[in-house]
């Protein structure tokens, strides 16, 4: 067991070091497959109130790009809010205090580490400091961790009334065959079949639906705000992601890094508006 944990740590460390040596200066505009500079992409994002910035959680270059987008939108005069997969509703008071500049970094770091325990604070530090220093609201959008785990183990129908009461009302969480197929193609490492795969799919779908509801509610309550969603690539993807659960009437743009099975030759307009180009330094 110790050896397995050590191997995991070394693998994670290798990924962090190697990906920090990547630079993102261009993106592919999916509509016409043209490569454009990141600065031009940010200018093109100015016309939408909702921007999804997908990531691989352990990729430093992705977080640097996210910060660049946030700074670019702020320079355009946008009133911003950052909606983050990394936090769930119970942390919202701490997030509000952080954005107001009322919480020391060491104290807030503990909130982050409780919320997102497997990725080092340093990966998100600059982004969160930007939020604090510019008094940009950070919005917790993820579903309660223990409820998601319960669904992943026994399915959505297994939830108790008390667990359901902690979720937005009226959620219908049933993974379609199409969604299951998407899960198999994008997350082959799960190695699950049958009911086990369906339970995991429902857990992911629950997270998407909860995050979509929270984003939509925030947009409605703050009509002058541009919301930037920070989430893993699978959740930020148009097909089978948060955006698919928003309903009609909410326009958005999606920026994704290359994530299996999406690459320059396979990404479609249903998946993203822009695909980031990763280059080694």
UniProtKB/TrEMBL annotation:
Pfam families, sorted: Cofac_haem_bdg
Segments spanning the bilayer are none
| Domain Haem-binding uptake Tiki superfamily ChaN stretches | 41-246
Q: Which residues form the signal peptide?
A: none
Which InterPro entries does the record cross-reference, listed alphabetically? Cofac_haem-bd_dom (IPR007314)
Q: What's the protein here called? A: Haem-binding uptake Tiki superfamily ChaN domain-containing protein
Native source species: Geoanaerobacter pelophilus
């Amino acid at each position: 067991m110790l050896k397995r944990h050590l191997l995991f740590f070394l693998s994670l460390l290798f990924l962090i070091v190697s990906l920090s040596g990547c630079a993102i200066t261009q993106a592919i505009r999916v509509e016409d497959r043209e490569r454009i500079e990141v600065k031009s992409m940010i200018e093109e994002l100015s016309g939408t109130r909702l921007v999804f910035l997908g990531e691989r959680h352990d990729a430093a270059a992705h977080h640097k790009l996210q910060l660049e987008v946030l700074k670019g939108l702020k320079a355009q005069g946008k009133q911003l809010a950052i909606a983050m997969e990394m936090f769930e509703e119970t942390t919202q008071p701490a997030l509000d205090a952080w954005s107001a500049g009322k919480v020391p970094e060491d104290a807030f770091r503990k909130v982050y580490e409780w919320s997102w325990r497997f990725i080092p604070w340093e990966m998100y530090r600059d982004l969160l400091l930007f939020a604090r220093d510019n008094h940009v609201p950070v919005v917790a959008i993820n579903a309660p961790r223990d409820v998601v785990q319960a669904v992943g183990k026994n399915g959505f129908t297994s939830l108790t009334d008390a667990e359901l009461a902690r979720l937005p009302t009226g959620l219908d969480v049933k993974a379609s065959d199409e969604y299951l197929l998407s899960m198999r193609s994008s997350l082959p490492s799960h190695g699950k079949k049958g009911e086990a795969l369906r339970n995991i799919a429902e857990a992911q779908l629950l997270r998407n639906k909860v995050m979509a509801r929270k984003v939509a509610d925030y947009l409605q309550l703050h009509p002058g705000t541009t919301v930037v969603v920070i989430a893993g690539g699978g959740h930020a993807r148009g097909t089978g992601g948060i955006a698919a659960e928003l309903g009609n009437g909410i326009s958005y743009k999606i920026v994704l890094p290359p994530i299996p099975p999406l690459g320059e030759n396979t990404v479609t307009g249903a998946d993203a508006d822009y695909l980031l180009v990763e280059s080694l330094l």
